[in-house]
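User: I'm writing a tutorial on reading structure tokens. Could you give me a worked example: one chain, its sequence, then its tokens, then a sentence or two explaining what the tokens reveal?
Assistant: Sure. Here is the example chain.
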Amino acid sequence: MRLKKTIVTKDIQQYTLKTDMNETYHPIAGDVAVFEVITLGRHEQVQGEDKRNVAIFEKDLIMAAFADRYATSQFEGYVPTEPMELYDILGAGGAIGMVKSKNWSLKDVEPTKVRLVGYCTDDTGKVINTKWYKKPRVPFSGLVPNNAKIILSIGSTMDSGKTTTAGCVARGLKTTGKRVGFIKFTGTCFTKDKDFVYDCGADYTIDFSDLGFPSTFMCEKQDLLDLYQTLLMKAGAEKLDYIVMEIADGLLQRETNFLLKSKEFMSTIHSVVFSCGDSLSAFHGIDLLSDFGISPAFISGRFTMSPLLIEEVKLSSGMPVLNMDEIMSGAYNHLLISQKLRAA
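And here are its predicted structure tokens:
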């Protein structure tokens, strides 16, 4: 049976499959292994090494990596602390772990179950880990190559419209004739977001999985800052004038929350755009961001599909509210680029 490699394992070319450590080795996030599909559930496809959606079937063999996942509309899952008989596919990009909770909309949907066949090891016998695999790690310095202006796209929750807003911002900035890039800094491996922003017109896109991270959930702060600097330096080779960057999930999510509170991280940010799913989350989000010392350049997101909600937020917040067409037009670029991030 042909082995189906998930995208997070795309750089793993040479390995030895070891099966004698399945019952004794305790995996960590990023460890690579081969799994047999036992029963299909939520995931009937995985994203393959060539970014194609690959159908999977019972008895198929897939190469994937252990990972933690935070997704309020999908699964919450973790790398198990001990060997298990079966594991769950947490994300289509190749994240494997054990589901702890799931959104109520999936109450009747089970995760796809897989069995560990063996670990992928290098020529020293050590389990291969995708994080930083054959890639240099750049310690955080706060240097932004080319003095590019970084526009940070954040949201009230998962599915609040962050990526759509980021793509529209990139398209709007392209009307200036400058070079625009996109970084998806945190989340769970799946290239849909960076591919969307590229299709919106960005000249260059990159995400955390390009440095081997199957997920950034539960990463330590210094690891995240080094990941950020390394992504910036890789993007720097493209001589970008603007970098639109998205950090995943909502303001209260672990990594998002401590990044927004980090003076080191926020010192690199030129301006912030805030996406919300409804008007109430906009108001509370503005207050929460104010506590962090952040004032968004404008507010957007899913709620801007409703003209009534737009008027509510405009009247009650006194802040600019833009829909997607307005952002893409470039007519409001001045809100993003005219001055450095204002303290709230």
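What the tokens reveal: The first strand starts at residue 3 and ends at 5. The CA atoms of residues 31 and 83 lie 13 Å apart.
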